[in-house]
Fold this protein.
Amino acid sequence: MAGNDWINSYLEAILDVGPGIDVAKSSLLLRERGHFSPTRYFVEEVITGFDETDLHRSWVRAAATRGPKERNTRLENMCWRIWNLARKKKQLEGEEAQRKVKCRLERERGRKEATADMSEDLSEGEKGDIPGDVSAHGDSMRERMPRISSVDMMEDWANQLKEKKLYIVLISLHGLIRGENMELGRDSDTGGQVKYVVELARALGTMPGVYRVDLLTRQVSAPDVDWSYAEPTEMLGPRTTENSMQDLGESGGAYIIRIPFGPKDKYIPKELLWPHIPEFVDCALSHIRQMSKVLGEQIGGGQPVWPVAIHGHYADAGDSAALLSGALNVPMLFTGHSLGRDKLEQLMKQGRQSRDEINTTYKIMRRIEAEELSLDASEIVITSTRQEIEEQWRLYDGFDPILERKLRARIRRGVSCHGRFMPRMVVIPPGMEFHHIVLHDGDMDGDTERNEEDTTSPDPPIWSEIMRFFSNPRKPMILALARPDPKKNITTLVKAFGECRPLRELANLTLVMGNRDNIDEMSGTNASVLLSILKLIDKYDLYGQVAYPKHHKQREVPDIYRLAARTKGVFINPAFIEPFGLTLIEAAAHGLPIVATKNGGPVDIHRVLDNGLLVDPHDQQSIADALLKLVSDKQLWARCRQNGLKNIHLFSWPEHCKTYLSRIAMCKPRQPQWQRRDVAFENPEPNSPGDSLRDIQDLSLNLKLSLDGEKSEGNGTIDNSLDVEDSADGKSILENAVLKLSKGAIGGAEKASLMEKADPNVGGSRFPGMMMRKNIFVIAVDCDSISDIPKIIRTIKEAAGKANHVGFILSTSLSISDVHTLLISGSISPLDFDAFICNSGSDLYYPSPSSEGPGLPFTADLDYQSHIEYRWGGEGLRKTLVRWAASVNEKKGQIVTEDESRSTAHCYAFKVKDLELVPPVKELRKLMRIQALRCHVIYCQNGTTLNVIPVLASRAQALRYLYIRWGMELSNVIVFAGECGDTDYEGLLGGVHKTVIFKGIGNSALKLHSNRSFPLEHVLPFDSPNILQAEGCSCEDVRASLGKLGVIKE
């Protein structure tokens, strides 16, 4: 906890005790007594525990002890514990400093290697910043906002977009989300993010060209929350009729879609949602697929209308959006809101917990990995401020501002980036809804006397609720609106107010700290902060000068701002660090000058609004001086108020949405490839299977060259449109991008017919049968020995019987040639299977009577290869991996060798001689990310093989692809797996499908998971009713498990 003031009070109290605690005798008390000492026992038992809550309880007990000797002994023990706190903190700080040095060296080395790979001469733009360069992370608010929000360009752009019908999906999983009467502050998960995503969805739904917006969240049917959170669908109507810029169609508008996942009838914190993310993804995929069909009938001419973008909010939704984006092959956007690495640093600085303890409490490493995956998958990362990019995102392996500048300079020059990619960082401040803000005459000119005589409109009830605290309610009000959270720094504000007599004489202080019924029922941290505030009020005797109401409704917040403005007051946000500061914008819109922390988003807000003062949140005197200056200098107050009102429109939701949509328009449209409309496919030559296959191959090549920013039509990439916005052609480029965006969003003629010409089985009579199966058995057992796989296949097939309604898919890390050899050895026909997921999910094959190659009766799904092509590093990635293998071999002998025979276009395979001598998955993945290479690294076959595949490819994602393409219902899928497996094992267990785990199989693979960033229990839903462990792997065991899952009758 920041600002451990109670520690000082402990020490002061100990010093005040007098001679009872003698420094000369303290060693006798603790170390030199020959007999058993309860004191010594107490110290030894608690010395390693330094939880502040426990320490506070100990202090209360010690202070309540009547006997002076016992009291002195207890106080001495407390002193030793406090000393241990400081010692432990120094130890953790030292370890963290060493880790940072190591990370910095790794990043510098990775950057150097990446630059060496890109061997062309560096341009001036690559050597440093270019004046006027459009940087993805250095745009100033004043420079970028006028250009993006240019009136003429945005009007033309809006006119172009009016006839379009875009479908956008937003995701925000945790907290309680509803459109009206939001319970902000109810708990730590229901805060500013909830309000942001709801208002963003509502605002986007009113924009021209946007047909439908879905905000996906969790359905909560718990008895301790309101029934409205269990409603499957809630429409977000426009605030006013003037806001609606279009006539809504049958399914048009903005909606909250609540997806049921996780524990039923229970509201759980976000830290416990991680094991249930795959279940959400599967259910969300079903909703999006169904909605795309509905919209296709309404506005798509019968062709599915896929989302133009999927936008994840916070790490859990970012993880979900990445999986959905990969399954659908549509662009992804990400907004972090609060970042895990930054939180980890803040917690480490406090010195209360080690990294392991923090990880156990907050599941922080799982959160960080989700944010890294979001960087891998996102086309655009939206931030509120430059500070978030420069000080927070640069902490991540997947984003390096220096390397990002080099890559963008190369892209502008049309030079290859050798398979390296960086997401586009874009600063778009959150918007605000102004419809409810009415500045009354008294609010505008501060004529309180005249308004008091005006009785036509009664005062809002919340005014009297606040005013009852004050002995002189006419004084200017200093308003703070924040949860009683340590990082909000409210205690320092109360101290600044209490110790500045001139400020107390001139102003009142109002603290709106969420809602509470009983302090004892609040969370420990919030209760501790609130109690500290109440004690400070008592210490400085601030009764009659400080208001701290227990309750307020969300709709009353504007009235609270109005009251402060009416008294010519000031709004303050003294947080230690504020990612953005939406309350500052709200306050400015109501005519309140601001005092805000200089750390984080308020710097950008102040730069635009120029309506107050910035302070060091750690400097109590600075806070008091700034507040005193604004309430005492009426001319300064009026000037700040006027500046805020004049510039506040720059933070409106329409401005936000225009910039938001223009950024989406810059993305290369992507969607499921067999649904894509392309001129080359509209009139294919009859009886020309070779040409059709070549067209498909050409499409894959074009996707590889254009989707990720290395090359595109014309010179540079679509992203380059932003780089030339100031040129004469900037307007037409933006218009063309919007047209491409809409064209790509609505699916065209199915390309499956072309696949039929390449092989009649693909898209022919066999594969639509997959959707007719009652059940699909997916055999994904990573056996200790490959030779055991045929036996398991035969056992599962025997258990299934001869019913035609059961289909089979083999999911493995083996190559298709290895699979073929395996099937021959077990006398199993490939035609017994519906599909083969090979090379850890990077290749998908269907059985075929004809041979694609010598002796290989399989047909490759080329559409799937195009589907997973996104950000695949290709030859640049392979060269980096070969260089990495050489460096390992140089130090430890021939440990890693490239396996060219098993490598394919989307899977680079390596043989591993000794798993203990190679770095774990997390280290290799980190190495690739540092060099801007996006991939999925998997150790398989008990650590004897390393597969490197596209970042959004996996065995689990291949199943989702089959669902999207062929309609294979995931709820009818039964996955068979071992107790452990390859390092992608966790992806096979979660989701709506059922899983049978064979006890005792795959245990040899446990060593692959011994050095993980986070334990498997943080991500696997072991308590799910869809997961069942079979006692053995006999036919009877399989049938018994299937019976318990309700798949067959026992």
Notes: Residues 10-51, 123-150, 444-453, 676-766 have pLDDT under 50 and may be disordered. The chain is about 45% helix and 10% strand. The first strand starts at residue 166 and ends at 171. The CA atoms of residues 165 and 211 lie 5 Å apart.
